[in-house]
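Quick log. Single chain, no ligands specified.
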Amino acid sequence: MKVTFLKRGFLQRLFGIPATPRPPDPLAWRFENGRITIDRKRAPELARPGGALRLEGGGLPVRVLVIHGEDGAFHAFQNRCSHIGHRRLDPVPGTHTVQCCSVGRSTYTYAGRKIHGPPTGPVPVYPVAVEEERLVVSLR
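-> predicted structure:
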């Protein structure tokens, strides 16, 4: 698999500034009983393949990246690079991968497997169920 790198400035990589935004609508998602429920009507970022949301706070025990994959499916990852833990992940358009926003450019498949960079292991992935106009991500 050929690895494509996100186009980022040096300072973006150095400081680990992710490209994926947090949802602008605070009612787009909620977390309870180990599950994240995303209202797709309130999260237009996920309407098309390549779209993504960065979920943080709101009682979440971990940061989560949810993407509408290039394969048409929805994927969720623990949003923490396995090399430098405080760095975030972003989808790489047209590649079926996510990549760390740091200088190392750690790259993972949708299954969480490392394919490039210094990490020694995978990034955790979470199952995503599509229930009508909702996505349900199970963190258990």
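The first helix runs from residue 10 to 15.
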